[in-house]
Amino acid sequence: MNKENDEDYLCVTQDLGYDGNRDRWVGYDPNNFDHIYREYEKIVDEQKKRKAEKLKKKYEKQSIKKKKEENEENEDEEEGGDAEDSELSSDSEKDNDLNDNKQNNKKNNKNEKNKTIARNLRIREDTAKYLYNLNLNSAFYDPKSRSMREDPLANIKNNLENSNYYKGENYYNNTGDAIESKKLEIFAWESYKRGENVHFNAQPTQLELMYKEFLEKKNKLIKKKQEDILKTYKCENITKENNNQQELIHSEVYTEYKPVDQIDSKKNNKIKILSKYEEDIYISDHTSIFGSYYDRETKKWGYKCCKCTDKFQHCVQS
């Protein structure tokens, strides 16, 4: 069938609006599912027939057993009257046991009904999410998933600061123990990628133990790194309490923050900072270190005192 040349073919376009285009049940026609209903009815009828056949077989077996028992009882009656008394007592005991079991089952059923009623009442005591704020512009409530992610009372928060009210599922999913559960889930994903058989829902206790061990190892590694850094710079015995402000200064020049008249320009005190390398060592009669001067023409480093770029040459000014 060529749709382009067919005059009877119509392409219907509908502009249902913002809500209509996002409706989950648009285009649903229950008449299109009649064949599914018929198949389901046939399946139910066949199940009923099979159940009836099973019940017939059970009744037949029970009738055969009863006949055998009756024959045995007749034989026992012929043997003597003592056997009859014992059988009557046993039958009466069985009947009493059956009656007791029936009464207990009835009581249990009543208790279960009461439990379900109490549960429903407890749920009904809580106000529904969509009844917190009846304004049309408030948070969206999805009836199919029964979720309200945003805060329904976001515009009225100032009046309800001291009261307990529903703050939306996004708030509860990002506070409290929910954050820790997310961390556990991420840890489960990463560990599964590395080849460990761990699942967030199937093996929660094993996952928690692994996560605790992981955190302990991580903290130990961090402490080792800190200790190694202190060893390299020979700062093992230094603690935070004993550290002075002067030792934390980055520059070696001592500065005083005083009025201009009181500052002594001659003072140029230096602070000794612990370091791994040797400092202020002057070679071959130089008064400055190598690297304190840079010659732009030759693009080489040298000594500031004599402006010499050869490291092992003696100082000219001395």
UniProtKB/TrEMBL annotation:
Feature: compositional bias, Basic and acidic residues: 60-70, 91-100
Superkingdom per UniProt: Eukaryota
Location of this chain's protein in the cell: Nucleus
Biological process, per Gene Ontology: mRNA splicing, via spliceosome
This protein's UniProt keywords: mRNA processing, mRNA splicing, Nucleus, Spliceosome
A Pfam family annotated for this UniProt entry: Slu7
Residue span, Pre-mRNA-splicing factor SLU7 domain: 16-292
Role, per record: Involved in pre-mRNA splicing.
PANTHER family: PRE-MRNA-SPLICING FACTOR SLU7, STEP II SPLICING FACTOR SLU7
Family note: Belongs to the SLU7 family.
Protein name: Pre-mRNA-splicing factor SLU7
Native organism: Plasmodium yoelii yoelii
